[in-house]
Every structure is written in structure tokens, then in C-alpha cells.
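chain below, 252 aa
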Amino acid sequence: MIHYHGGPITPDTCAIKAWRGRHAFISFAHAGQMNLAAEICQSFAIDNGAFTAWKAAGRKNLIDWSGYYSFIEKWKNHPGFDFAIIPDVIDGGENENDELLNNWPHGKVIGVPVWHMNESDDRFIRLCREYPRVALGSCGEYDVKTPTKAVLRLKDLIRHVTDKFGQPTAKLHGLRMLNPLIFTRLPLASADSTNVARNIGIDKAWSGAYAPASKETRAALLVERIESYNSPGSLNYCAVKDKFDMQLQLAV
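prediction:
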């Protein structure tokens, strides 16, 4: 599994500690460190920034994606480029998101569609048949802030797109899912989060006699902890137990 560490990670000295020889996830909404990531990372992926816009406004946004399309045109042939997230509407309907897929100008190898957890299972299955990689977006009651609910929902879904070995027929990327409580229980090819960027500056979280004093050391420590875990190679799904656990979690 590839662990993508989201930016911006500031200052740049911390980004270098976190990214050198690893993998970066750069948001179009905060692309100031794009050149740095491209220079020092093994590889990088690019997010469309829709979540940032949605979170800031708290409602559906009408966005002109032409700038994003041009941004991907600039970077898509870079040797370190892995993929780009196709534009999506966080609280939009399936038809609206499918329309954005139709407008995507860079093809299905470069572009990765997003399936949101409030969308139908049928759409997820269809995307896995049509694209080599699909991104999983959490929302609502299945937000990643409640890992158990999110995992149970995804396990019940992913079982529909696995082969006889329990391996997904499309590569799956977990958006904001670089939490070991999530990715160690799902057969993800990759996942991202801004865990490092958000936590290196919270001084009260780093207490005690042996707490690292510098942000750079904190970044290195967080990355090492996250990357010490991996995703399973196949889906471990128990129909009776997992469905019972899901019902129990939804009742809480």
C-alpha cells in the first residue's frame, strides 16, 4: 500500500522530512509546494481540492474546473506523477458527479473518480468496472471520524468487486483514510491524509521529557508511525459478523 502524506506541510523543512523518498498528496487548493514534492518524492498524486472548497462554504459549490484541467496537463507526464482525482461535488447527486466524469479531458488512466459513501452501491460497482482505480470518499454518518462505521460500510461494499482471492478488481484509494484503524482492515492500494501537516504544530500533543522539540522531528516520527502499518492484500469479510457489527454501530 502507498501512504500519501497530504500538504501543505509547513515550513518546507518539515515537508522535506516527511516527503523525501516517500509519497505526497497535493491539493490543487493548496498547491504551493507542488514543485518541492515533485523534486524530492518517490511519487505524488494530485487532489482536485473539492473537499477544501466544500468545507469552507458548507454547501455545494459551482466550480470552474478549467484551471484544474490545465494544472493536470502541466504535471501529468512528470515521471513522479501517479494519478489525479477527477472533480467531484461532495454533496452533489450521482448524475452531477457522473457529468463531471464525462467532462474530464485526461482519460481514465490518469483520472480517478470519487465514490461517496452516501451514493449507491451500484455506482461504486460500475466505477470499478470502468476505471482502473477508484477513490473512496467518506461523508455523513460514515465519515472517517467514526472509523468503525466507515470500515463496516466499506467492507460490505468492497465484497461486490473482489475476485476469488478476495482482491479488489480495481485499485482502491482511501481519501482521508491514512488512519491505521481504517486502512489496516481494508484492501486499499493507497490512502492519504493530512495527519502530519495538522499535528506537527500542536505543542500540547507532544509532552513529556522525551517529546521531540522540533517540528521536523515530529514530522519524521509521525510518518514512521503511519508507515509501519500496511493494508491487507485481500478482503476479510464475514457476512454474519460484519453485518451485525454494522447494525450495532448504526444504532449507537
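Residues 137 and 148 are 15 Å apart (CA to CA). The chain has twelve helices and nine strands.
thats it, cya
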